[in-house]
């Protein structure tokens, strides 16, 4: 008889509520939330009892066709297809294999495709066209398709795929050699298309932009990076003729003619005002001048996200243009201005009043920003949850007392701040006690004291990245009475040895992912101790750990079968 697990106690000491007493619909809501936000916790719950296992089996399932699955269709793939026959929604292949066509036909024959919504094929030697045809002929509701970096993918094959999957709403065909003929054919057949990524297709021109705008009336998002023959005419045409456009992302290289206005009937400046629904605007490595920012400001768009990293190579860009832009969009939630060379602390003082609704900001590689800017953002942006301030002058100057405590900041990326020291890191922890994600990689002045203090201040910290750690120990304490909640720990390139690993094993029993790549002081002894004691571990990266042998790797596989991914030190293979 199945054991009845007690989960709560009622007011009466003798009355108890068990898992089976809670309606299945309630469990499905709870597990769906976990599946969306904390997927790693689903597996332990599914092992609690058959009742929860049956519910987790109905949650959306993502299947990646790895080489072992492709080689063992009946023994490995078939049981998965039977278990998740009604919940398979995402199908992925990320490496080439000769048997992909056969595997796709096998999946069709298993009748597990009725709820399939997404297909992701990347880095293949050839497109499995026969398998895709077979898959398209079966009952499915595929809305999302990725065909990224497929060797030999041609216009004719792309059109055939579009004829098979006519309900596609999102498609990624980046890093191929497609031409205008293929994109025009795609546009004619995918009438419901909303999002498209055309990046690194160097043969396409403005004709593709025109075809997409004319044929795909529901088009909302376009991404064109590295498309050197697309000009402002093409971008402007999309802006003027795609009424539902809500997001556009573009970049420019030396070869591009994107900013040569003299050749353009349309330009970004004279077309941006037509984008009445534009909420996301992304410029990458472009010369964004003040005149363009002023045009965007005048357009009065519903912008919530603006991304413009490394976009000040022009003498016609300044803080004045950025100020005008930010003043026009006080509801901006995400701002990425990495590498803006003119930004200084004084500049940020003038801009901070426009950033009250920011949820995320990226000021990385702004070499004129110091500790003062960090504190201004923390104090004056009450909605801020994430900040990237890597490679700045954080650590120069002091944090003003008294420290302001903020509960909303969850993620800080502070890598490569060579002035950041232990005392300031501790103060940051006191200011942001609910921090869950911290990256202090290559902060060479930090010691174990700084790491120890911030993990004590931030008890909810789950993700810690300290790649390039040069100290012999990490915490230098035992955390009496309690362990850390760390689930992800990245130590790539660390200069420590077995003693540090023993310390991690004792302090971090909840680890799910550990990166020890290029940690040459780590030996088989500490790796075995790690695998034996960290029972929740799901992924282990040992790339280039020269003191870990093939025999140790074989032992790991047999001793901890719950490990899902092991990156081997031998020939850098992933198992």
Report on the architecture of this protein:
The structure is a single chain. This protein has 575 residues and is of the alpha/beta class. Among the domains are: 1-59, no CATH class; 467-575, Leucine-rich repeat, LRR (right-handed beta-alpha superhelix) (Alpha-Beta Horseshoe), CATH 3.80.10. Helices cover 33% and strands 14% of the residues. The chain is built from 21 helices and 22 strands. The chain has a 20-stranded parallel β-sheet, with no helix packed on it. The chain has a two-stranded antiparallel sheet with strand order 1-2. Helix 9 runs parallel beside helix 10 (206-215) and helix 20 (524-533) runs parallel beside helix 21 (550-559).
Q: Tags for this entry?
A:
575 residues; alpha/beta; Leucine-rich repeat, LRR (right-handed beta-alpha superhelix); 20-stranded parallel sheet; two-stranded antiparallel sheet; 21 helices; 22 strands; globular; disordered N terminus
Total DSSP E strands: 22
Q: What is the 3D shape?
A: globular
Strand content: 5-15%
Distance between the termini: 38 Å
| CATH H-level superfamily of the domain at 467-575 | Ribonuclease Inhibitor
Assigned CATH architecture of the domain at 467-575:
Alpha-Beta Horseshoe
- State the name of the first-level CATH class of the domain at 467-575: Alpha Beta
Low-confidence stretches: 1-14, 253-262
- Percent range of helical residues: 25-40%
Number of helices: 21
Sheet with most strands: 20 strands, parallel
State Rg: 27 Å
CATH topology-level fold name of the domain at 467-575: Leucine-rich repeat, LRR (right-handed beta-alpha superhelix)
Class based on secondary structure composition and strand pairing: alpha/beta
The pLDDT mean sits at 87
């Amino acid at each position: 008889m199945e054991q009845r697990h007690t989960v709560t106690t009622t007011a009466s000491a003798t009355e108890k509520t068990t898992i089976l007493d809670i309606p299945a619909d309630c469990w499905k809501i709870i597990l769906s939330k976990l599946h969306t936000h904390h997927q790693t916790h689903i597996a332990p719950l599914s092992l609690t009892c058959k009742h929860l296992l049956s519910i987790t089996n109905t949650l959306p399932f993502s299947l990646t066709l790895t080489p072992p699955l492709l080689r063992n269709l009946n023994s490995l793939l078939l049981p998965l297809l039977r278990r998740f026959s009604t919940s398979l929604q995402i199908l992925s292949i990320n490496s080439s294999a000769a048997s992909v066509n056969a595997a796709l036909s096998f999946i069709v024959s298993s009748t597990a495709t009725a709820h399939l919504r997404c297909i992701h094929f990347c880095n293949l030697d050839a497109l499995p066209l026969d398998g895709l045809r077979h898959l398209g002929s079966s009952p499915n509701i595929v809305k999302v398709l990725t065909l990224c970096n497929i060797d030999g993918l041609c216009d004719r094959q792309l059109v055939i795929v579009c004829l098979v999957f006519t309900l596609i709403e999102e498609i990624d065909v980046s890093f191929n050699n497609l031409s205008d003929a293929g994109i025009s054919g795609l546009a004619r057949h995918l009438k419901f298309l909303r999002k498209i990524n055309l990046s690194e297709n160097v043969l396409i021109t403005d004709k593709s932009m025109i075809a997409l705008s004319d044929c795909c009336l529901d088009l909302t998002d376009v991404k064109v990076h590295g498309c050197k023959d697309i000009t402002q005419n093409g971008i402007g045409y999309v802006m003027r003729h795609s009424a539902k456009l809500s997001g556009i992302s573009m970049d420019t290289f030396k070869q591009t003619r994107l900013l040569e206005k003299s050749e353009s009937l349309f330009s970004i400046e004279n077309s941006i005002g037509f984008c009445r629904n534009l909420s996301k605007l992304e410029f990458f490595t472009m010369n964004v001048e003040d005149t363009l920012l002023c045009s965007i400001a005048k357009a009065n768009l519903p912008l919530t996200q603006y991304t413009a990293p490394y976009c000040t190579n022009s003498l016609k860009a300044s803080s004045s243009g950025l100020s005008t832009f930010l003043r026009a969009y006080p509801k901006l939630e995400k701002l990425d201005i990495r590498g803006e060379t003119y930004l200084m602390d004084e500049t940020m003082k003038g801009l901070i009043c426009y950033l009250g609704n920011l949820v995320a900001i990226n000021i990385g590689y702004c070499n004129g920003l110091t500790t003062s800017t960090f504190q201004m953002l923390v104090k004056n942006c009450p909605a801020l949850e994430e900040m990237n301030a890597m490679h700045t002058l954080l650590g120069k100057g002091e944090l003003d007392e008294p420290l302001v405590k903020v509960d909303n900041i969850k993620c800080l990326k502070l890598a490569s701040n060579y002035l950041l020291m232990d005392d300031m890191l501790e103060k940051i922890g006191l200011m942001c006690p609910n921090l869950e994600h911290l990256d202090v990689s290559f902060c060479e002045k930090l010691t174990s004291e700084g790491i120890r203090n911030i993990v004590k201040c931030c008890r909810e910290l789950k993700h810690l990245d300290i790649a390039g750690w040069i100290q012999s120990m990490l915490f230098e304490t035992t955390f009496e009475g309690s362990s850390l909640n760390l689930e992800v720990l990245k130590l790539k390139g660390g200069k420590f040895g077995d003693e540090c690993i023993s310390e991690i094993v004792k302090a971090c029993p909840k680890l799910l992912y550990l990166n020890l790549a290029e940690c040459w002081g780590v030996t088989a002894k500490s790796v075995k101790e790690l695998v034996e004691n960290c029972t929740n571990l799901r992924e282990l990266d040992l790339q280039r750990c020269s003191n870990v042998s093939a025999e140790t790797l074989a032992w790991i596989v047999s001793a901890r079968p719950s490990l899902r991914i092991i990156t081997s030190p031998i020939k850098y293979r992933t198992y």
